[in-house]
Amino acid sequence: MKSHKPICVVVADDHMIVRRGIVSLLSLNPTFQVVGEAADGRSAVDLAIAHEPDVVVMDITMPEMNGLEATRQIKARTPRVKVLVLSAYDNPDFVNEILQSGASGYLLKNTTPDELYAAVTAVHNGNAFFSPSISKIVLQNYLHHTHQAPPPRRPMEPDVAYSGPLTPREQEILKLIAEGKAHLQIAKLLHISVRTVDTHRNNIMKKLDIHDAASLVTYAIREGLIIVKSDRID
Q1: Using CA atoms, how far apart are residues 134 and 158, in angstroms rounded to an integer?
Q2: Distance CA 226, CA 233 (A)
């Protein structure tokens, strides 16, 4: 049986109990290998340079150097290394700054283990990954800075069938993702595994040649899979 190389991860968080919890969760899954732990941003940068892991799971508020500056330095000095932010904060300013610094994903600390696994895997594969509430912030920021109203909805009436490349199941999953449902919620609603949801999501992004959450949601709006009222996008 062919063995697969595990995804190498560095975990950076100044709270030891949180950091050790993340390390323990990742270590329980043979898909991942934790190659370093950092209690501050400067150590996270040093470990990223020394080990060149596949992914750094990064907290934002840390001593010595915060996660924002640490992400900037990691992306400048080791561009191949992906950064996944794992934070307790969903402040739009934090979200916008950290994504501009080069992070590939933003996950809230109230996430489930399965969502953590999916997020690390997604950013390792070159995709973006956001918690549902973070996806909404990303979309709002995208529409605000491009001075766009939500794209006009194409009515999904019986005589106006969807003509894109997605299968009915993929359309269903895209609709739920765009509505802000977490992968675990989607899995329960559709009676499938979280891994299957993640596989469908990756296939959707490949088919559409879309690599960020905001564009994925925008596509769903444009195709009439979801409706966003204008007063929800401030």
Answers
A1: 33
A2: 14
- Comparing CA positions, the residue from 54, 55, 52, 62 lying closest to residue 18 is 62
- For residue 170, the SS3 value is helix
- Residue 78 to residues 51, 66, 70, 211: CA-CA distances in angstroms? 10, 18, 12, 21
Token pair 């950064």 is at which residue? 83
How many CB atoms are located within 10 Å of the residue 125 CB? 16
Backbone angles phi, psi at 164, to 5 degrees: -80, -175
Q: Residue 30: CA atoms inside 13 Å, Cβ hemisphere, count?
A: 3
Q: Beta-carbon neighbour count of residue 167 at 10 Å?
A: 13
Give the distance from CA 13 to its chain's centroid. 18
Strand pairing class (105-108; 55-58): unpaired
Per residue in 66-102, pLDDT (tens digit) is 998 999 999 999 999 999 999 887 777 777 787 788 8
d(CA 180, CA 59): 23
Residues in the chain: 234
Q: What tens digit of pLDDT does each residue of 38-56 get? A: 999 999 999 999 999 999 9
Contact 143, 233 (CB under 8 A): yes
- Ramachandran angles phi, psi of 55, nearest 5°: -140, 140
Handedness of CA 148, 149, 150, 151 (dihedral sign): negative
Q: Which two tokens stand for residue 34?
A: 């934790």
Q: Which domains does the chain have, with CATH numbers?
A: 7-130 (3.40.50.2300), 138-232 (3.40.50.2300)
Local structure of residue 18 (DSSP, 8 states):
H
Give the pLDDT of residue 159. 39
